[in-house]
């Protein structure tokens, strides 16, 4: 795309010549000719002056003198991501299904663009137009996968799972496993509680590599539309996650927890069962949410999780313990010296 076409596509304001062709996106530090980058904040204008990019997305108030054309936009990082989708589209495959694929459903219901080597698809499945099922994936019985969704290599989708349109399931992810539910039976140990529910993944969800999503015990585990889940995330049975939620890597969410719309969950967060995270809440990395806890809108951190301002105050107090210890030690010494003088 030419720079002028990019500016028009993004609805930005071009400053400088727009006839150079752009082939790739790149970081500001490494960008070269025919590549476009972005400057997120004007405070880093010095970096922009050093770049060799052909063009840069900049904030609307950017006015530093630079020797290349730039495009003023409201959100440079968003503009960069949007143009990256145009310049670096997913490599959709259109060749015939691989000869080693085993499909046990009627072919008229399997409309995928491509099914890779050693894929297995069970009975009564539906795969929408444009979907891609890549090598080694295992799809159980009664599974539905929507249009243009991508199931990457070596994923396992258990029976009765529903995946919406435009989803991406990254390699090694397992969806529909039994939840971790057992009932104590005295000295004989544990009896498994029924795990006969399902998983429903709505449209435009992305799930990172090696994540695990358990099926509902008797009902469903549900992931709302537009939610993005990082690698190595565990989501237990009967969890309900709303729309446009972001969950970072190594987070573990216990059974029957509810996360409402537009929440942000940092990495390595642990959530006890039946917790509720209200819409708009942001939970910082490595926080711990106790079972049944209600986390309201705002920024939260720590274990047990608490409002960020309170967490900062507690940290400040903890950092002051060493100084307080020395002060107490000095006071005790002064008291002892005073007592000794009085005795003499």
**Low-confidence sequence ranges:** none
Number of strands: 37
Helix proportion range: 10-25%
Give the C-level CATH assignment of the largest domain: Mainly Beta
Would you tell me the structural class of the helices and strands?
A: alpha/beta
Name the beta content range. 25-35%
Task: Write the CATH architecture name of the largest domain.
Answer: 3 Solenoid
Summed up, the domain count is: 3
> What is the fold named in CATH at topology level of the largest domain?
UDP N-Acetylglucosamine Acyltransferase, domain 1
How widely separated are the two ends? Answer: 93 Å
Radius of gyration: 27 Å
Spatial order of the strands forming the largest sheet: 7-10-13-16-21-24-27-30-33-36-37
CATH superfamily of the largest domain: Hexapeptide repeat proteins
Describe the structure.
The protein is α/β, with parallel strands linked by helices. It folds into three domains: 3-87, MurE/MurF, N-terminal domain (Udp-n-acetylmuramoylalanyl-d-glutamate--2,6- Diaminopimelate Ligase, Chain: A, domain 1, 3-Layer(aba) Sandwich); 102-308, UDP N-Acetylglucosamine Acyltransferase, domain 1 (3 Solenoid), CATH 2.160.10; 314-344. The chain contains five helices and 37 strands. The strands form five sheets. An eleven-stranded mixed sheet has the order 7-10-13-16-21-24-27-30-33-36-37. Strands 6-8-11-14-17-22-25-28-31-34 form a ten-stranded parallel sheet, with no helix packed on it. It is flat. The termini are far apart. The relative contact order is 0.06. The model has no long low-confidence stretch (mean pLDDT 93).
